[in-house]
Amino acid sequence: MAINLAEKYSNQVDEVIRKGLLSTAGVNNDVAFGNAQTVTVFSMDTAPLNDYNPEGGMQRYGAPVELQDTTQEMKMTQQKAFTFTIDKTFEADSPEGVRNAGKALQRQIEQVIIPEIDRYRFAKLSENAGTKAYGALTAENAYTAFVAANTAITDEEFPVENRVAFCANSFIELLKQDTVHFTKATEIAQDRIIFKGMVGDCDGVAIIAVPKRRMPVGVSFIITHPMCAPAPVKLQEYKIHKDPPGIAGHLVEGLLYHDIFVFDKKKAAVSVQYGTLGTLEAAMTAAEAGKGAVSVTGETSGGTLVYKTNGSVTAPKLGDDVSAWTALPDDGIVTATSGNKLCVALKNADGKCVAASSVISVTVGA
Question: If you placed Cys at 240, which of 3, 14, 153, 327 could pair as Cys (CB 3.0 to 4.6 Å)?
């Protein structure tokens, strides 16, 4: 017997996801994918402005030009799934409700699915931002950095209304120290708190607090407008199977098909500030002759791990160019020279350092 939650509990599941997502305020559903995996979006260009000539005959408005267009292909890529079982004997030996399949599924949605959607959306917004700034933030410069990022969007003549800023809690702590420019949630009338997670506003932009693990590494805040990024959720299906063949108990399955895209013509309305250098911990153990196994711990969302090894290596700073560093293999096995030094960094889509380890000594097999 299968209980399809998309049918039986659709309102409840949708409500859980809607309430839990923080990124909703910064995206839209303007692109319809229908039955297609890929959609091509057309953006029309504009015509030059001419001087009107009343004696210009048939070209008083100037010479006509054919209006050109540009296209952007959007292909959905994020197909995520999960499955787990709750054995009937384990459920019978547990306190009532502890191993309830419905509660377990809701926990999976709240603690895994929702953070994953937010994490992916924030990473893509940062990757495709039209304005990117790098620099350590303090209580003294946090507000000015925010205003500069917001002004960059305004200068591109994008609407001021409905802009939203997704901010790391560490950045909000810096803003709170500026009681002149930051309006805290406790000072906002309830009817002005319009977004999930909104804690105040700054420079006229709603501030939404985002847990550290949902933000790309190094990012302090992202300012955007919902018109910039369609975020389709094409399919989300959650099922509980009771006593399926081969299992005494419940089999729970979930499928999520989603993505986010930033319109090429509207990237200028997205600003991101990398204000904190992430911390990585690197270690190296001997592998085969001339090779070592590098292990790395630390948050890596929104970036790619790279490394550099030489006789002398300096750990990079926030925003340093590490595009020429070597990609760290998935298994961590690298070729190096015993006695040399090695450093691991996390580079973003622009090849800039957003996290780094300390410099360690190379260890390889003899």
Answer: 3
Closest CA to 53 of 45, 43, 63: 63
pTM of whole model > 0.85?
A: yes
Q: What are the pLDDT digits (tens) for 282-314? A: 999 999 999 999 999 999 999 999 999 999 999
- With the CA atoms of 165, 168, 173 and 178 taken in that order, what torsion angle do they form, in degrees rounded to the nearest 10? -30
Q: What is the pLDDT of residues 311-353, one digit of tens each?
A: 999 999 999 999 999 999 999 999 999 999 999 999 999 999 9
For β-strands 353-356 and 219-224, DSSP reports them as unpaired
First to last CA, the chain: 59
- Do 239 and 83 meet the contact criterion of CB atoms below 8 Å apart? no
- Give dist(CA 166, CA 196) in Å, integer: 11
* Alpha carbon distance 355, 318 (integer Å): 7
DSSP string, 275-311: -S-EE-EEEEEE-SBTEEEEEEES--TTSEEEEEEES
